[in-house]
């Protein structure tokens, strides 16, 4: 039995279906992420788990027991708010002690637990400070400590890293993963940042317009997106319009307008003539000089139209001779070479026949 | 990091020019009159009001001697404090729910509700008090301490509602959600979050009610009985009826000293309180 089950949850605001028939299982000890663009319903799901909103249809179960009619203060579920929502009139210690006081713990236990939790988030020396005296990263840690201290069954995190600058954000990501592993509490994390989701999560539910598009571990989500939305939302991807020419257990033969035949990995039940897109990650592409003979089955000529030098890697935009633009990510791995091609260079683009995934339109 | 300053650093001239008019105003209309009162309290009363010529009677401590000789003045001062305290308490009890309601109304309705609170100011103060006379008469409450408190609360209620509303409106609603999320019921949320955060509003509202009530003479005169005179009435009588300006001046200074004493005490209490917050664990 899953720790938290969402069964056919629908939530409407006026005429708008904020969440549509969502069914999810979240397992004990998981770092589970709800990922999607703003307005996709991920925060609404979080609020329903916390108890601030009630679903219009469907039901939530925590450890097999329905959450219907149970108010937020009675749920063993705590939230780390996007704005942190630290109590400004209480010190760090006062904030962290709050849920323990609410639970009616004896004062000696409260002291001990607060001390342990302060150590856990590396704020031992900030116990007497007020929230306005803390930096963004410190506030973030106090909010985490306050959410964790009473050992909830679930900790909900609503874009908790959104207000931090890039450097700090990266550091907090590492800390967050370590923290979750250490305390073993189930995390439900909401974000619109796909990289963050990939880096932190055990499993990710990709949401779009109130629905769950795909639930999978990050690697599968990245390499085998189920549909065009997921492919496009997670990472960068080339989408090549094409239709099926032949399909067997060795692979697919596709045809793209003006490009000719493309070999793609086998997929079951793919009828001939069906239209769709071949989704191809930029790092699957190989880019070489046009005068070197091709070594792979899928090879096309083009010209470098733009590049973005990232240091360790370079993103090339390549205009193929049929007018289509592909994006290729090339590691700058050769010693002494910072970059390989200039704008206007004729290049040969190649990729393996087992790279990419064909998605029906 | 340099502390934020509203004034560009070194622009002293601007600072002086901006603060000069209010400073002048306060000097001319507050500081000088206060000094005149201090001077008057050491003079002798004139035969037909005003002050006796300095050359004839000189300086005297008569007014202060008179004050300390009769316990009645202290009693009236104490009674005035009691009335001011009760009025402040009732205003707070009535104003808090109202201010909370306005602060939690949709934004578009708030301005309208605030307008309703200040609407009574549109009609004359005396007319509103006379309306109370008409209402209280048949209820057999007129000319009683109850009538005085009722009138005081009625007149000063907006001065409690407005600062409270200004404070409560700024509260982040996420704080209450956080408190609820962490296990606090409605009552606990109020006492542990809303109330402590509202304290600055409570303090300024209380000051805006307590201090004017102490000096108020119209309400007790119109609604109270002969036994209900307060320190404000007493001061007014010395100047207008008894024509004993030095006594009036010394009473007035005594009141000022008492008010400053209370203010100092409440500031000290507030400091001690904020020092304790959060240190309880």
Structural notes for this entry:
- The complex is a heterodimer of chains A (361) and B (281).
- By secondary structure, chain A is of the alpha+beta class.
- Chain A is 23% helix and 36% strand.
- Chain A contains 8 helices and 20 strands.
- In chain A, helix 2 crosses helix 3 and helix 2 packs parallel to helix 4.
- Chain A is globular.
- Helices cover 75% and strands 0% of the residues of chain B.
- The longest helix of chain B has 33 residues.
- Chains A and B meet through strand 6, helix 2 and helix 3 of A and helix 8 and helix 9 of B.
Beta-strand level of the residues of chain A, as a percent range? Answer: 35-45%
User: Which structural class do the helices and strands of chain A define?
Assistant: alpha+beta
Instruction: Summarize the largest interface: chains and residue counts.
Output: A-B, 35 and 22 residues
CATH architectural type of chain B: Orthogonal Bundle
In helices, the fraction of residues of chain A equals 10-25%
